[in-house]
Amino acid sequence: MMLKHFPTGFSWCLALVLVAVACFPVLAETVSPDEAVSDFEAAKQSLEKADSDAMGTVVQNAWESDAEFNTRKQSVLDERKTVKQNGLSDAKAHLELYTWVVDPRLVKLQVLPFDRETKIWSISVESKDPAVPFSERIDHSIKDAPDMEKAFAELAGIMKDREKAIADKTLEAEIQYRIHANEAGTYQTIVVGTTLVDTKGGRRVVLEEKPSSRLWTFVAGKRNAPIAYETLEPEITQTAVAFLTALKDADFDAAMKYTTDDAKVLLTMLKMAVSSLTPDQRRQLDEQKGKKLNITNVVRNNKSAKVAYVLGEQPEQWLDLVKQGSTWLVEFKKSM
Fold first, then answer.
1. Alpha-carbon gap, residue 252 to 333, rounded angstroms
2. What is the pLDDT of residues 295-318, one digit of tens each?
3. Structural domain of residue 109, as residue ranges?
4. Does 110 share its domain with 202?
5. What's the CATH number where 249 sits?
6. Does the residue 226 lie in any domain?
7. Which among 211, 241, 271 is the end of a domain?
8. Which of 2, 4, 137, 222 is the most buried (most CB within 10 A)?
9. Could you count the other beta carbons within 10 Å of the beta carbon of residue 176?
10. Please, what is the Cα angle at 97 between 95 and 103, to 5 degrees?
11. At residue 5, does pLDDT exceed 70?
């Protein structure tokens, strides 16, 4: 049995959240992100003007009854609504075909120390572009290597070369992103890939990663000032923070106050499992309590939401929430 959609980022949890990144055809960078957003805004305004112009020509004829006029007017309204929806869909699809790359000069690369506990050696990638405040770790694991000594020696050689390439400025990270238009009139920046490129003697791709979707909300004309998640969805954020803080502290009873009934059952099982931890596992659990919890993003879709969070130095993870009545609750399910 495995747990599906269980919040991760805690070493003692039993499952991982897998967030798939949709892949779209790539349109060449013929315009800047700001120009693309400006073009989309212009398309919206054009559709609005067409609506206004069309409705301005709808007047009651001398021979029409009020009922006949209202019927004809509603027919025009319905037709214009369809035209506008189709126009917006086409404009959104065009916007999302563009893929841009963060200026490599604004991306910091760093080889992190080897983690003896997890057998992972990572490279940190961090964007200094204020419009794309992205960071991730590209992990290289030798945990399952049959010959640990040989695997470590090989990986150490690779990391030494990468470290030298970073120092020589011949290793760059290309962070690819797209822009999505929301129904509410805001926009979201979505990171869709990270590529390590060796520029010495040409352009050679060293490694490609497809990270979990990272979203930053902004309004037209203010792409460099993403909107704080707290101001967008405070109720969702408060629920997520309360739940994750309780879970981080292994206070399962408190965590259950913020979950669905299905999640309560799984938390009860986890609570029982924790009671029989070994001393080493207990130590790892206690270490979680002192780590800092940061909410990095909130994405809402009607009565469901996803909250991105980072615990300590661990990679970013996502938490699912649903709205039941007027209350937001954390949701995760069991899958055989």
1. 16
2. 777 777 778 888 888 887 777 788
3. 100-211
4. yes
5. 3.10.450.50
6. no
7. 211
8. 137
9. 19
10. 90
11. no
